[in-house]
Amino acid sequence: MEQIQLLNLQEQELTQRRRFIMAHFAKIGKGNIVEKVVVVSNDVATTEQAGIDFLNQTFKTNDIWLQTSYNATIRKNYANIGYTYDQTKDAFIAPKPYPSWILKEDTCRWDAPVVKPDDGQNYKWNETIQNWELVE
User: Fold this and answer.
1) With contact defined as beta carbons under 8 Å apart, do 117 and 125 qualify?
2) Same domain, 53 and 73
3) DSSP for 37-68?
4) Distance in angstroms (rounded) separating the CA atoms of residues 89 and 29
5) Domain carrying residue 69
6) Under DSSP, is residue 111 helix (H, G, I), strand (E, B) or coil?
7) Does pTM top 0.85 for this prediction?
8) What is the pLDDT of residues 57-72, one digit of tens each?
């Protein structure tokens, strides 16, 4: 009997948590640029398509929406306004911070051409010399 009560409590706790879990969707505009990111209840967005349909019905549009994830389980990075959606990579990519930086194919994140020192001090990137400079 105690086991059944414990299972019921665990199930109730999971149900409570699910109420606060939300799906995030990015509106894709011209040039595959993210224009907006909105939140939809998981009760509504039971699938990505259900969330897209809900948003287009709510806003009375036929916009392109894609689901995004804070923990990067889909589309490699969480979408933010100004990011680009790359269809080939199925990934959201931040704007390139500096001309010399290189896109890592596996993460779709930008890396400096020189590894940032890991000595506990603060550094900033200097594009002119293409190296890290100590911030004093």
Assistant:
1) no
2) yes
3) EEEEETTT-SSHHHHHHHHHHHHTS--EEEEE
4) 18
5) 2-95
6) strand
7) no
8) 999 999 999 999 988 8
